[in-house]
Design brief:
With 193 residues, the chain is of the alpha/beta class. It is 59% helix and 12% strand. It is built from nine helices and five strands. The chain has a five-stranded parallel sheet with strand order 2-3-1-4-5, with helices on both faces. It binds BIS(adenosine)-5'-tetraphosphate. BIS(adenosine)-5'-tetraphosphate binds next to α1, α2, α3, α6 and α9.
């Protein structure tokens, strides 16, 4: 198995690049943001609970997202690899993911981090908010709250993977195709090892 995490702040291009990467490498795309939005659309109890956090720019509790990922991994026993998009977002989620993968005699092979300035993040998300219908993208205060959550709770995840030498930082600004090629180069390099 080959497992990749696409890491970065909200609006850094994780969702955009994930779609292209799963197409090229045949990985199973697991986006906790998409899974949570599906739960909201289906008006499940989990979705209604998660919406309160998402609408205010807060992270959804660890137990909820870890449970979703556990089921998704179980539901794909023949996967050749997973691309985790927007997960893990806390160190507790990272530890849980390592344990889940170890149960399947697997591990994370690379963590690819997209670096983008705060002003560009805000501009991209406000721009997406004009057409996406996403309630967390329309208000600058909520976007700032999401970035603050990232700084406080998610950025320590980088240190967690760095201790295992799995962290690769890449420039997330510029055109989508060039960023995609840079990500592919890293994946190819790791696959040859
Ligand atoms: P996500 O769905 O993961 O949303 P995101 O981080 O905002 O989006 P992403 O980074 O994928 O967007 P992209 O840049 O591709 O999370 C939403 C919420 O769900 C969180 O706030 C949290 O509440 C909850 N949640 C999710 N996972 C969780 C977890 N593990 N634990 C707890 N809570 C969790 O797109 C942004 C825009 O930029 C797009 O319009 C795109 O077109 C544009 N763009 C992309 N690349 C560009 C480029 N190179 N140049 C210019 N524009 C670009």
């Amino acid at each position: 198995m080959f497992n990749v995490i696409l890491f970065g702040p909200p609006g850094s291009g994780k969702g955009t690049q994930s779609e292209k990467l799963v197409d090229r490498y045949g990985l199973i795309h697991l986006s906790t943001g998409n899974l949570l939005r599906e739960e909201i659309t289906n008006r499940t109890a989990l979705g209604l609970e998660a919406k309160k956090y998402m609408d205010s720019g807060q992270l959804v509790p660890d137990a909820v997202v870890i449970g979703m990922i556990r089921s998704a991994i179980k539901n794909n026993p023949d996967a050749e690899g997973f691309l985790f998009d927007g997960f893990p977002r806390t160190v507790a989620q990272s530890v849980a993911l390592d344990e889940l993968l170890a149960e399947n005699h697997s591990e994370i092979n690379a963590v690819l981090a997209l670096e983008v300035s705060e002003s560009e993040l805000i501009e991209r998300l406000l721009n997406r908010g004009k057409t996406s219908g996403r309630s967390d993208d329309v208000n600058q205060e909520i976007i700032r709250a999401r970035i603050l959550e990232y700084e406080n709770k998610t950025s320590p995840v980088a240190g967690y993977y760095d201790q295992f030498g799995k962290m690769v930082k890449l420039k997330g600004e510029g055109d989508v195709e060039s960023i995609f090629e840079a990500l592919c180069n890293e994946i190819e390099a790791k696959k040859l090892v």
